[in-house]
Design brief:
The chain is an alpha+beta fold. Helix content is about 30%, strand content about 40%.
Length: about 170
């Protein structure tokens, strides 16, 4: 049996009601846990792009890819786990930032290339895009200040260079 790894799938879907439900139901029926799921529009009208991250061995990943291809409204599927890829996530963090600590918080944010998108008299909202590890690092250094709220987008991935048809 092969070792479990984190697999990243990209699927292009027809932008129709119920498509996401059919995709997630596939994972539910087979009792696979989704670690990250992100869906959004593409540059093509009527096509959405799904990035899904799961933990599975290579055999299960191949079966998931095959089952995704069989779903109605799924146009294309790629397992990019072993391909050179860019992987990013967006986070918004609302941090307690009284005036006497605000400069310190903003300096830490700058180190992580996060930027302030909202400032109130007692808090700041930071926006950051990066790898999950980098976002986790920012969260760790801000935790002592008091994270009031956080939202993360889930991973978005894209292979580097041109995707070959046989990849």
């Amino acid at each position: 049996m092969s070792q479990r790894a984190v697999h990243t799938f990209i699927a292009w879907l027809e932008d129709e009601p119920g498509v996401l439900n059919r995709v997630t139901s596939l994972f539910r029926r087979r009792n696979y846990n989704i670690l990250s799921l992100n869906v959004g529009r593409t540059h093509e009208k009527g096509v959405s792009r799904l990035t899904c991250v799961i933990e599975a061995d290579d055999d299960i990943a191949r079966r998931i890819e095959a089952n995704l291809r069989k779903l109605v409204n799924v146009l294309e599927v790629k397992d990019i786990t072993y391909a050179p890829a860019l992987v990013r996530e967006l986070a918004l963090l609302k941090v307690s930032a009284p005036p006497e600590r605000r400069a310190e918080i903003l300096q830490l944010a700058e180190v992580f290339r996060a930027r302030a998108v909202d400032v109130t008299e007692d808090g700041v909202v930071l926006e950051m895009t990066g790898t999950a590890d980098k976002l986790d690092g920012l969260v760790a250094v801000l935790r002592p200040f008091g994270i009031l709220e956080m939202g993360r987008s889930g991973l978005i991935a894209m292979t580097r260079g041109r995707i070959r048809e046989d990849a």
